[in-house]
């Protein structure tokens, strides 16, 4: 591959991810509105929010780590996008593989922890300690799922995993070959998105949105951008692992929005668990289902 | 070029408003219908937020007692600019039915610049929505700049606050420092009241760690 082509892809992939991510945020808010019998926000609402937040005239920083933390939170996902193969663009997916991607997806939480730590707000500290506990809870089933899929495909390279599924046709998709792992992956997805049954760290009524409590202006704007990337990354990764990736952008958008609809519609129907219930539940059910799935794969 | 950029930000600002509703009085009961399915305010891009740092609009619903006003001031000063204040109910306009009360602040705009009043006792959700639309129109035309007034006439607002709360009153936010940093110092920023504040002001110390 030409170097210039690679550089272009490295710029384009996060950019496309950002735009699709904003569409996903809009989809989340529209879906919630429809479930609650409301009209919902207009088409460009996520974009207006981001522009407004970056356009605030006074910005309150709590120090250098506060700034760096937000950059890490966004940068972790931006780096992850270049490792996610999408139709027409592979980026550096062939060199990174799924293990690097797993590591990169943890960086945003850690960056957020750094940034929130400097804010020295008790609500923020409670929120971030909950977020890290939640990460501990969902990462174990996530690693089991990723191991199972990689073992089944005989490769930790996402491009090869997708190719193997596409050559085997629809019957060869991960969701039909490894249904137990797909179920465990779906529960993990809900945990990693931090949506309602597992929404322990963003608790508006209790700890006033947890990690975001001291974030205003461009910092909150950064977190909005991060959320867009987060939706995109998790949905596209699930599509690549279990739904056979996608040959065209239409198929990718269709599949990833479909994947995202499941946790989001659950989120608007259920209240949430307490933190210790979350850890107990995530370490029991997805881990058991995942281990059973791995046993079938082996 | 910068004018185009300003217009774009104003356009986005008018369409994305995060409300911090400081529900002090009976007007708060009219807000749930505004937010939920009957009068859905999210279709205007207005959504509720829970902390002052994230919010754009401070919605003061109903009467403010003197104790409450201290908290409202702390909240207002922590919000990031541009920020807008909406006073709902006649109590924020002129004291309303609490006119004779010794413990109630009569007019909200003596203590902070108010962009918009929605009068009524209590205003219907339709009135709240039309008030929000009015504010959006003002923001889009770049006229909702009353947050700058707080920096430019800080002495006046501080004087009124000191009149109510006593001479020892101070907030954690260094308003004069912020005004200097953002170039918003006006004729009324410094005066006799801020001189008094500088005399009694003691620097904020971190809380003692104790188990």
Explain what you see:
The complex is a heterodimer of chains A (298) and B (211). Chain A is mainly α. Chain A has twelve helices and no strands. Chain A has helices at residues 3-35, 45-54, 64-81, 93-104, 107-119, 122-153, 158-167, 174-177, 179-193, 218-242, 249-267, 275-297. Chain B is an alpha/beta fold. Chain B is 42% helix and 13% strand. Chain B is built from nine helices and seven strands, in the order H-E-H-E-E-E-H-E-H-E-E-H-H-H-H-H. In chain B, helix 1 runs antiparallel to helix 5 (125-140). The N and C termini of chain B lie far apart (57 Å). The mean pLDDT of chain B is 88. Classes of the chains: A mainly alpha (298), B alpha/beta (211).
State the main characteristics.
heterodimer; A: 298 residues; 72% helix; B: alpha/beta; Rossmann fold; 2 domains; two-stranded antiparallel ribbon; 42% helix
Report Rg of chain A.
19 Å
* CA distance, first residue to last residue of chain A: 36 Å
Counted by DSSP, the helix tally of chain A is 12
Number of domains of chain A: 1
Estimate nothing, just give the exact number of structural domains of chain B. Answer: 2
Q: Helix fraction of chain B? A: 40-55%
CATH domain topology of the largest domain in chain B: Rossmann fold
């Amino acid at each position: 591959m030409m170097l210039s082509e690679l550089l272009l892809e490295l710029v384009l992939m996060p950019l496309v991810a950002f735009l699709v991510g904003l569409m996903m945020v809009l989809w989340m808010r529209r879906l919630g509105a429809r479930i609650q019998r409301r009209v919902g926000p207009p088409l460009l609402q996520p974009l207006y929010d981001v522009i407004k937040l970056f356009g605030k005239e006074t910005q309150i920083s709590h120090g250098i780590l506060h700034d760096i933390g937000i950059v890490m939170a966004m940068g972790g996902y931006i780096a992850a996008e270049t490792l996610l193969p999408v139709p027409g663009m592979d980026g550096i997916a062939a060199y990174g593989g799924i293990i690097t991607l797993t590591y990169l997806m943890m960086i945003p939480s850690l960056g957020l922890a750094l940034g929130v730590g400097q804010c020295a707000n008790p609500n923020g500290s409670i929120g971030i300690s909950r977020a890290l506990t939640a990460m501990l809870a969902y990462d174990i089933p996530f690693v089991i799922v990723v191991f199972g899929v990689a073992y089944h495909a005989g490769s930790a390279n996402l491009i090869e995993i997708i190719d193997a599924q596409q050559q085997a046709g629809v019957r060869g998709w991960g969701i039909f070959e490894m249904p137990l792992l797909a179920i465990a992956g779906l529960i993990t997805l809900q945990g990693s998105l931090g949506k309602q049954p597992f929404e322990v760290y963003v608790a508006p009524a209790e700890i006033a949105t947890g990690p975001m409590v001291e974030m205003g202006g461009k910092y909150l704007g950064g977190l909005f951008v991060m959320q867009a990337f987060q939706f995109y990354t998790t949905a596209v990764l699930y599509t690549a692992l279990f739904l056979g990736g996608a040959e065209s952008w239409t198929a990718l958008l269709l599949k990833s929005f479909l994947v995202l609809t499941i946790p989001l519609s659950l989120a608007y129907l259920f209240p949430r668990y307490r933190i210790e219930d979350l850890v107990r539940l995530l370490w029991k059910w997805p881990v058991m289902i995942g281990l059973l799935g791995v046993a079938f794969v082996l | 070029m910068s004018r185009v950029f300003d217009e774009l930000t104003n356009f986005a600002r008018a369409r994305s408003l995060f409300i911090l509703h400081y529900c002090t009085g009976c007007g708060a009961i009219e807000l749930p219908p505004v937010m939920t399915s009957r009068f859905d305010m999210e279709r205007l891009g207005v959504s509720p937020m829970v902390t002052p740092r994230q919010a754009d609009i401070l919605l003061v619903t109903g009467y403010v007692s003197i104790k409450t006003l201290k908290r409202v001031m702390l909240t207002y000063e922590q919000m990031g600019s541009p920020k807008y204040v909406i006073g709902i109910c006649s109590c924020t306009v002129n004291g309303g039915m609490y006119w004779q009360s010794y413990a109630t602040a009569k007019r909200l705009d003596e203590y902070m610049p108010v962009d918009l009043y929605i009068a009524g006792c209590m205003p219907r959700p339709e009135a709240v929505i039309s008030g929000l639309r009015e504010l959006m129109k003002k923001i889009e035309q770049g006229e909702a700049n009353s947050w700058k007034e707080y920096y430019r006439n800080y002495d006046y607002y501080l004087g009124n606050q000191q009149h109510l709360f006593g001479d020892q009153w101070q907030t954690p936010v260094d308003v004069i420092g912020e005004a200097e940093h953002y170039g918003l110092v006006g004729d009324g920023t410094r005066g006799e009241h801020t001189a008094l504040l500088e005399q009694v002001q003691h620097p904020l110390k971190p809380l003692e760690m104790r188990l």
